[in-house]
Amino acid sequence: MNTHANIHIGHSACPHDCPSTCALDVEIVDGRIGRVHGSKDNSYTAGVICAKVARYAERVHHPDRLLKPLVRAGAKGEGEWREASWEAALDRVAEEFLKAEERFGSETVWPYQYAGTMGLVQRDSIHRLRHAKRYSDFFSTICINPAWAGYVMGTGDLRGPDPREMAKADCVVIWGTNAVATQVNVMTHAVRARKERGAKIVVIDVYDNATMKQADLGLVVNPGTDGALACAVMHVLFRDNLADWEYLEKYTDDPKGLEAHLSTRTPQWAEAITGVPAAEIEAFARLVGETKRTYFRLGYGFTRNRNGAVNMHAALSIAAVTGCWKHEGGGAFHSNSSIFGLDKSLIEGHALRDPSVRALDQSQIGRVLTGDEAALHGGPPVTAMLIQNTNPANVAPEQRLVKRGFLRDDLFVCVHEQFLTDTAKLADVVLPATMFLEHDDIYRGGGHQHILLGPKLIDAPGEARPNLFVIEELAKRLGVADKPGFGLSAREHLDWMLGRRGLGTFDSFRHDRWADVQPDFDTAHFIDGFAHPGGKFRFRPDWEGTAGSTRPPESMGLQGPYGRLPEFPDHVDFIEAADQEHPFRLATSPARTFLNSSFTETPGSKKREGRPELMLHPDDAAGLGIAAGDRVEVGNERGEVVLHAKLTDGMRRGVVIAEGIWPNGAHERGEGINVLTGADAIAPHGGAAFHDTKVWVRAALV
């Protein structure tokens, strides 16, 4: 710890959309922050955080932060602005919303938000305004739905073994997550198991990334084929008497049916689909079958394919076949999101919600804004928006449709942001937003078991204001400030929520810093039965009937080709398969020092990432006449993008990888990688298939 006389340490929590939700110790000097450290006192963070958050001063004190409200002065997207007062800017927003509502009804207004902050007050208060005004509802689909749905289909609940138990495992399987880049603390506990217990680390992904380079066994699969790998592993477990029949008969619904179903799902069958040699599949199956303390850490890569829910359920099922759930250091984990029990009803205005109001799919914003009747679900066009905590012009699929929609003259958009993002550049009014150290909030660690407080530690620069301020001020102007939940400060919301959970008040919780709410061993490991009626793990999921937090509202119904979902774990061909015109499959995997579109503005992250690149297998590149560093054009029926070639043999032939979501302006034509990705819904609960895109690749013309 720095001992400079003017330095003191503040305590907070990382606000970003990462399952690690790290506990932070922040150096503060004369109202500015210095280095940020992971808290050594927190048993999951364990003193380790990612490099991008360690350098958070680069974001907080960045010279390009928005400091005053801006109002568009020229044509949309031309970048001409004039400064305005907060009063004038908010008056303009309210006036435009009321004008739109008078013409088309309240559903013409669509408040749009996501996870730029994971703080419950600052992220979710927008829903209270939505419900109070009967604005269009928001069906969240861009991240979690396929993975969460697939997991709950098996277990019945979104929880699992204490993630700290990875350190007590004899084998840790990291599947579908580049943990070194996206949730570094997974590696803390997995590597501890290897050092202290001699545990083996297995990594399964679509390319040889930074996490796989630390593995004892790495399996590189073709995108969207994880279900085939899982089925072949279970085939071997049954064939070689490595299945735990005592566990299967007590805890699962139809083990005999599963065994019969898998009789033809051999390693050779899976090799033809996944690209993984049958011998590697056999070795992996023997390892997990013979190692009872195997911890399956299943990541968010499962959300990125059109068959992602099926793949998650199939991978999850392996743990039930081996019976590793019985052991400390064993079982399968994706998220602990169901354990926290924080009541958001006041923040979100649940009492104000009208279920008859139409919902719109977050991922289909391009279709919504360009008037697609199916995407509008029978309601009016969207002619007014408030956007907080997200950057859809950059991160949403079908980017050309998104931009075309934002450029409509009859669409009014207010963006509340920290920087002039691609979305903010297309807005009519831009409001300056605070960062997490500049307001009060509370966080939940989906990748672990802690509820963490993030109190205000420094003053915001310029005229930056929190999300809650914007919601409250608009509520006054829109005539709903007298509704339940309005008129409260962030601390008052936190006092109410903490009190409902039995965790005291903001002041008392500030002293504690966090609460460990991990369920006991039997609950976490489903020793008393799984959370479905009857207590059985379901090899035969009820795809249409199972409830869950990602289930679409009744007005939308189930999504994608849900009628074709399989009876048992399997490989299904929902993926966007390569064809003669599009011989490659593209995955847009996370970059190590970006987080979606956050950190793309910080000098350290930009220097580390270099420039937008397309990773190609050297043999594929040779066949196309492409050398390392060449400009390459990659495209499909949605559009085309120029990147620079990076040659690596770390993926299967026919697969290309573009790491990170760069700002659109970082690409030479001003269009980003999501020009190529599709927004068709994933069965059964929706989602966006960012790693599931067929493309052609060629040398770019000069």
UniProtKB/TrEMBL annotation:
Residues 7-64 form the 4Fe-4S Mo/W bis-MGD-type domain. The keyword Iron-sulfur applies. Keywords: Iron, Iron-sulfur, Metal-binding. CDD domains: MopB_3, MopB_CT_3. It holds the Pfam family Molybdopterin. It comes from the Bacteria. Belongs to the prokaryotic molybdopterin-containing oxidoreductase family. This is Molybdopterin oxidoreductase family protein.
